[in-house]
Specification:
With about 280 residues, the chain is mainly α. Helix content is about 55%, strand content about 5%. It starts with a helix and ends with a helix.
Length: about 280
């Protein structure tokens, strides 16, 4: 069963609040961004387990375009694929989040990656990949509500810092960038594997890509290993009891549901590694 915009329209979703507060987001040690953030309604009461969106890349083979090195034009194309993929799955991500969180994860990510699309149109074509990723990270911090903005923003920023000014990203460097992204997200979220967060997808994917390259695998091999590990990470969040975020308040009742951040991370990784 696919939960798309039509089916989601018939299900009750939380309504965003109107109050605004100011938050300070430390994206890396010694560097913080202050910005307004809308308050959100608390999560919906737990309901029956939601079926998987049939279009989510959890079991089906996905075409990967892992030809490396990766340059700025191909990175831009990947980020635009992410925007489309997030929009496609936004309703489902929001339904997942209605069980464990604020019920706005998909909507927030759609807002953020549409802002990223606008950013890409503003930046010069010659912007190197590292600078591009850092700019994307800052835009996500500024536009994505809830915890996912600073978490995903930090991941992109840290990957961009590791890329430096390199014009073409090879497999070894990409592996290091993914590890840096996972490290940054873990530090920002103060989370570890098994906490039922985005990291449960990103860390296994980063380690699998890095290890595949270190073992002599090609970029395609590393990408396939990363996506396989990411899928396993998503599914592993179902029985976990949340130890971070709003889901923490549910205690043992958070078990039995996929973490929405872990699912959105898989969507993003597959879009980045995929093809048009």
């Amino acid at each position: 069963m696919r939960l798309g915009a039509d089916s989601a329209a018939h299900l009750p979703l939380p309504v965003a609040g109107s109050a605004v507060y100011t938050r300070s987001i430390e994206t890396r040690p010694g560097f913080a961004v202050s910005l307004p953030s809308p308050s959100r309604a608390r999560g919906q009461p737990l309901n029956a387990e939601l079926p998987l969106d049939a279009e989510l890349p959890l079991n089906a083979e996905v075409p990967l375009n892992a030809e490396l090195p990766l340059d700025a034009p191909r990175l831009r194309a990947g980020l635009l694929r992410v925007r489309r993929a997030v929009d496609r799955h936004a309703a489902y991500l929001t339904l997942l989040d209605a069980v464990l969180g604020d019920g706005d994860h998909g909507d927030n990510l759609s807002t953020g990656f549409r802002a990223v699309e606008e950013l890409l149109a503003e930046l010069p074509d010659e912007t190197p990949p590292g600078e591009l990723l850092r700019a994307v990270g800052h835009r996500l911090v500024a536009t994505v509500g809830g915890a996912s903005g600073p978490l995903y923003g930090t991941a992109f920023i840290e990957a961009g810092f590791r890329a430096g000014e390199t014009a073409e990203l090879g497999p070894e460097l990409i592996g290091e960038m993914l590890v840096a992204a996972a490290d940054g997200l873990a530090r920002r979220g103060r989370c570890t594997l098994g906490d039922k967060t985005i990291l449960d997808t990103l860390r296994p994917a980063a380690d699998a890509f890095h290890d595949a390259v270190a073992s002599g695998g090609s970029g395609s091999d590393a990408a396939a290993a990363a996506i396989s590990a990411a899928r396993a990470g998503v599914l592993a969040t179902r029985p976990l009891v949340a130890r971070r975020g709003l889901a923490l308040r549910l205690g043992e009742r958070s078990a039995g549901h996929l973490d929405p951040g872990a699912v959105s991370c898989l969507v993003i990784l597959v879009a980045l590694a995929g093809d048009d």
